[in-house]
Amino acid sequence: MNDQTKTSLPRNVWILTASQALILSVSSMVVFVGGLVGAQLAPLENLATLPVASIVVGTAVTIPPVTFLMNKIGRRRSFFIIGIYSVLVAFLASYAISASNFYLFCFSTFLFGATYSCVMQFRFASMESVSEELIPKAASMVLVGGIAAAFLGPEIALFGKDLLKVEFAGSFILLAGLFVIAMFFLTGFKNPIPRETANESLQRPLKEIFKQRVFWVSILSATIGYAVMSFIMTATPVSMHVMDGHSLSHTKWVIQSHIVAMFLPSLITAWIIKKLGLSKMMITGLVAYLICIAIAFAGKDLGNYWVSLILLGVGWNFLFIGATTLLPQCYKPSERFKVQAVNDFVIFGTQAVASLSAGWFIFAVGWKVLLLINLPFILALSVVILKWRTKKA
C-alpha cells in the first residue's frame, strides 16, 4: 500500500457522501415543511410539530430492524431495498397532503424513519471502508453530504409547493426523484470487508461492553447533543413563522443555515481532532450550545434566530462527530452491528422524546423557557466529558 492510498479516501466514501446529500434531503424537507403542513392540518395547534417528531420516532423504532437487515444481507442490498421503500413512502406523503389527512401524513413521516435509519448507517459503512487512521476523516466526509441536503430539501419543497393542487403535495414527488438518483449512485458501492482477526470472532455480551467508560462518553455525547439540537430546531419554524410572524422565506433561510452549519464543519473536524483532541472539540461544541441559547434568549429578531441556529448546528457537529469517532473504540468488528444498533436506538429514542415534546413546550411555556430547559443537560454532559478527559490523562 503506497502513501497515496494510505491518505486518500476510497470510492465507497465518495459514493456514500453523494448519496447522503440526496437521501438526507428527506430530513431537511420534513423539518421545513412538516410544521407548516401540520399547522394547516392538525386538529389542535400543539400537534403542529407532530409530523416532524414522527420521523424521529420512526427512526428510533426502525433502527433495530434496519441494522438487523444489514447484518443479514449486507449493507449494499439493504440500501437498495430501503431506497425503493422510500420512494413509495414519498408518494404516500404526497397523497396524504392532497387528501388533507393529517394523521396519514404523520404516518408517512414516521415511515421515513427507516430512510433516516439507513442514512445514519452510512457513517459506519464509511468508517468500515478505511484504515483506522482515516476513520475521523471518513466519518466527517460522509456528513459533508448534509451540506447539499440542507439546501436540496427546502428548495425542492418550495419548488414543488404549487406543483399539484394542494400546497407541498408535489414536493414529495420531487423527493422521490432524489431517492431514485441516490440509488443510481449506490450501484457503485461495495460491501466493506471487516478488519477482523481470529481472536475477535467471539462476541462479548453487551453488559461487558457497557462497562467501558468510553462507551458512555460516546453515547451520552451523541444522545444529549442530538436531543438538544432537535428540541430547539423542531420548535424554531413554529416560533419564527407562526408565533413571531417572520416570513416563510426567512424561516427557510434560518433552517437551511442551521443544517449547513450542522455539516459544513465536517470539512475540518478531522483536522480539529488532530490538533485539539476529541474531548476539547466536544467541550467546544457544548460552549457553542450555551452561546446559542444566550443569543436566542436575548431576542426574537431574525438575526437572533439565524446566529443561534448556526451555533446550534456547529455544536451538534462537534459532539456528533466526536461521539461517532469514539464509538469504534468500544467494540470489535464482529460486535459492530449490535453496538451500533444500541447506540443509534438510544440516540434517536431520546431525540424522539425531544421532538415530540417540542410542540407542546413551545405553545405551553414559550420560546425562552424552552431554551432554558436544555441547560441542565448541557452542564451534565460537560461534567461527564471533563471527568473522562481527566481519567484518560
UniProtKB/TrEMBL annotation:
Residues 214-393 form the Major facilitator superfamily (MFS) profile domain. Keywords: Membrane, Transmembrane, Transmembrane helix. GO terms for molecular function: transmembrane transporter activity. Pfam families: MFS_1 (PF07690). The keyword Protein biosynthesis does not apply. The chain crosses the membrane at residues 21-42, 48-71, 78-96, 102-122, 134-152, 172-193, 214-233, 253-273, 280-299, 305-327, 339-363, 369-388. PANTHER family: MAJOR FACILITATOR SUPERFAMILY PROTEIN (PTHR23534:SF1), MFS PERMEASE (PTHR23534). This is MFS transporter. It comes from Maribellus comscasis.
